[in-house]
Amino acid sequence: MKGLKTYVETHKNRFLDELISLLRLPSVSADSAYKKDTIVTAKFVANSLKDVGCDLVEICETAGYPIVYGEKIIDSKLPTILVYGHYDVQPPDPIELWDSPPFEPVIKKTELHPEGAIFARGACDDKGQMYMHVKALEFMTSTNQLPCNVKFMIEGEEEVGSDNLGLFVKENAKKLANDVILISDTGMISKDTPSITTGLRGLSYVEVEVTGPNRDLHSGIYGGAVANPINILSKMIASLHDDNNRITIPGFYDKVQELTNEERSAMAEAPFSLEAYKESLGIEAVFGEKGYTTNERNAIRPTLDVNGIWGGYTGEGAKTVIASKASAKISMRLVPNQDHHEITKLFQTHFENIAPKGVFVKVTPHHGGQSYVTPIDNTGYRAAARAYEATFGKTPIPQRGGGSIPIVALFEEILKSKTIMMGFGLDSDAIHSPNEHYGIFNYLKGIETIPLFYKYFVDLSQKNNSL
Ligand code: BES
Ligand code: MN
Ligand code: MN
Fold first, then answer.
1. Could you report how far apart the first and last alpha carbons of the chain are, in Å?
2. In terms of residue numbers, what domain contains 322?
3. Residue 5's closest CA among 385, 451, 454?
4. Is there a single domain that holds both residue 340 and residue 416?
């Protein structure tokens, strides 16, 4: 595409300033204290789509946060790309662990990013990655090189399970009709090793509550004679893994799709240093299911993790008490063929079954989502691979991601199109953690690579049609 590199180079400071303005808006979807700011963020995104030449931009109300829709249709005979992203972000806590305030973006140089990285909540997940698509469209419209139709659907509830987006997609399937869905909300292997995410894990998220006596008790007067809900909950949770770190819920692995040896050896070829991995996390050893490598454990194997646990006295000093209740939030990452509704039921039945007499157990399901895998023998994947080859000088490696974007499976089911995940984030970007950041290199490379996807997708689609 003509003038692409020069355009990005010429406008990079403005691209950064605009992203910084977007990052200043605290669009935390999980916390209603940020409601006003989240709605302002939707308007910001809508305006940015208008500014880069979308002919139709709508802020679509839902039962939750609005979905921003934008489109530029140049010719109904040409292919249509649907871009999905999210403008909501994770809560910033624990705030005290941030080196600079989460919603006051700053650019700092790091060892990995000598050219600088933007530090702010949402810098990578997903405002920075989503905004690359807006700026890529700006390049194509302002230089008259948009080769096909484009639709944007940017939601504000991804971090809380995308419940309303599912309904929106079902109700607007015609309007959202497309030839390929393009998402940048994942990562790549390293700064100089591009990869295309070919799979996402599913998710089942539950909250459990164990209730013992009808009130908090003196741990001396009653200790040893009644079930302590915290002791019981800890024991129940500990029993959910066996000595090989396999999950003990009956039926949990029944439908898990095992990879062939060929697939596993292909995965093992991706560059990875276990030493660097351990060092970056400050751990002496890795941990996980016996018989699988670290990269298999975090992408193609299911997991069960406690995300939070509470109960009893956690204030200053000591209080001798047996709490009446103990609770935990538990997530299970799922892999192809495991159905999240089914897994949630299996969990619930098992957890109720293992509760000893003397306590009462309540399991409350939260959100869930199905896993996703995409083949690589399709036009979208090939176009993405070519785009990376042009900007990185390397063929990208297909990589299964461990995270979840629950809506992707639904896209395929309802819109019947493939999703291509061109992620530009790095594992070290600290998404969902304090000091989240996004490399300026990654941001600008994304803006440069995306228009080439459009070009190659159109080229390859037309070639297919003429065969
Ligand atoms: N962008 C992430 C998902 C992701 C990150 C996938 C890196 C692959 C690599 C997304 O915003 C996210 O955080 N999803 C949640 C699920 C949601 C239901 C809360 C997740 O994976 O925990
Ligand atoms: Mn995300
Ligand atoms: Mn996220």
1. 25
2. 202-256+302-369
3. 451
4. no
Q: How many independent structural domains does the chain possess?
A: 2
> Among candidates 450, 440, 431, 442, which has minimal Cα distance to 20?
440
The answer to whether position 210 is within a domain reads yes
Sign of CA dihedral 92, 95, 98, 102: positive
- Beta bridge partners of residue 397, listed in sequence order: 195
Q: Find out whether the beta carbon of 159 lies less than 6 Å from any atom of ligand 1.
A: yes
Cα atoms found within 13 Å of the Cα of residue 87, Cβ hemisphere only = 35
- Are residues 226 and 158 part of one domain? no
Convert the pLDDT of each residue in 66-88 to its tens digit.
999 999 999 999 999 999 999 99
342 and 229 share one domain: yes
Neighbours of 111 (CB within 10 A): 6
What is the token pair recorded at 430?
Answer: 């600290």
Residues with CB under 5 A from ligand 3 (ion): 125
Bridge partners, residue 306, by sequence: 330
The residue type of 171 is E
Residues with CB under 5 A from ligand 2 (ion): 125-126, 185
Is the minimum distance from the CB of 126 to ligand 1 under 6 angstroms? Answer: yes
- Give every CB contact of residue 11 below 8 A, 6+ residues apart in sequence: 135
In a domain, 269, yes or no: no
Q: What would the two tokens of residue 56 be?
A: 């139709």
CA distance 237 to 79: 50
Distance between CA atoms of residues 384 and 382, nearest Å: 5
CA–CA distance, 103 with 90 (Å, rounded to integer) = 12
Kindly give the distance from the C-alpha atom of residue 203 to the centroid of ligand 3, in angstroms, as a whole number: 13
Q: Whose CA is nearest to atom 14 of ligand 1?
A: 404
Minimum CA distance residue for ligand 1 atom 15: 404
pLDDT at 466: 72
pLDDT tens profile 227-262: 999 999 999 999 999 999 999 999 999 999 999 999
